[in-house]
């Protein structure tokens, strides 16, 4: 069958019957060189194998016309190009000195390309002419050749012994793609995002203005819902139960994954700028130095004052049901306070003199980091009892959020699109390109090669 341009069309069979309702076509001059397709529209995952050996092909590259990324196959023959929208694409696969191209039409809901390379596509290095070993004969010496005897059968000549060394095949090295920050194209609205949280790599929620944005497929698509009120910090108690801190001492509550919302008064009239959940308990705090907590997913709230905080609490984080920390602005300096009884009583911790507020806290075991105005970053290695300055000289813009994967890898984000990255627990930092000049308000670290950041003017950034 031919398409309108006269190209052959190969209608492929899905290996997964659940995808049978999706139509996928491959258009090209030689469809036999390409195997089955299945997977997801917003990303293309390829498996490239040798039809001759059935083994995966490593270091093959695949490029999709109009997409900046290039996929490079790993040792299992796999590669990934994300955010492929339904359309007609030209796909080029290169391996060694062979280039194979085809046009692929992707029709929803999902598509994965699994290339199978025919035997003549797998190119092995061409052997170079053998070099004889010096002073070695290349045939049997003349005196060793048998002379026929009359009346007897003619002896069979002895073949010459090979005396050359076979060439050693070489492979062309290919660079491994380096993770970097990308604008997520799943939602392009201009909302001023305030915070982001997650339960796993597929389920994330973002809060800002009077909205909540939710994804259940790792950011391939998003659902925007109105919360009906000022939406600040967000915490995902589960994929269904989501809480957002708000103005007027209220917490916004959803029990259906962000579709609908109700407002619950916590007992204080403050703007609540931070909310945090650990286990079955949620804590929230804001600009009146009150800490409020709930043990029934935000239905009822109790609280107490954090002694010493005279202006505002910017962030709250607990490391157990009883031990927690808050940071913020005390008089004109940044400060950190600690509780060991779930929030009833608080004690100020020893910190260097910090001009301006501390905006964010992050704990990994006994190691903790906090960041704030003026680009300040402080660190503790004794579970928050004592803090010292990190010699961060890259920026003096305010840092709004900090998060660590482990004791080594983490990110801090802030004004003017600033993203800082550490691989040694915050001892030193480098700046990463964010491709935005908007203020970034929140960052979450899922792994050493996967993170998210959100901020002003609708910015949703993903690191991979």
- Percent range for β-strand residues: 35-45%
* Main beta-sheet strand count, sense and barrel state: 6 strands, antiparallel
What is the helix fraction of residues, given as a range?
under 10%
Number of helical stretches of at least 4 residues: 0
User: Taking Cα atoms only, what radius of gyration do you get, to the nearest Å?
Assistant: 31 Å
Q: Any idea what the shape is?
A: globular
Ranges where pLDDT stays below 50 over 5 or more residues in a row are 1-42, 107-111, 118-146
Could you tell me the number of beta strands? 38
Strand order within the widest beta sheet: 1-2-9-8-5-6
Mean pLDDT: 79
Cα end-to-end separation:
40 Å
Structural class: mainly beta
Describe this entry's structure for a reader:
The chain has 464 residues and is mainly β. It contains no helices and 38 strands. It has strands at 8-11, 24-28, 43-47, 49-50, 61-64, 70-72, 78-82, 87-95, 98-106, 116-117, 181-183, 193-198, 204-208, 211-215, 223-226, 234-236, 242-245, 250-254, 262-265, 272-278, 281-286, 290-294, 302-305, 312-318, 324-330, 333-339, 347-348, 358-364, 367-372, 377-380, 388-389, 399-404, 410-414, 419-422, 430-431, 440-447, 450-455, 460-463. It has a six-stranded antiparallel sheet, with no helix packed on it. A hairpin with a 7-residue loop joins strand 26 (333-339) and strand 27 (347-348).
Structure, briefly:
This protein is mostly beta strands and 464 residues long. The protein is 0% helix and 40% strand.
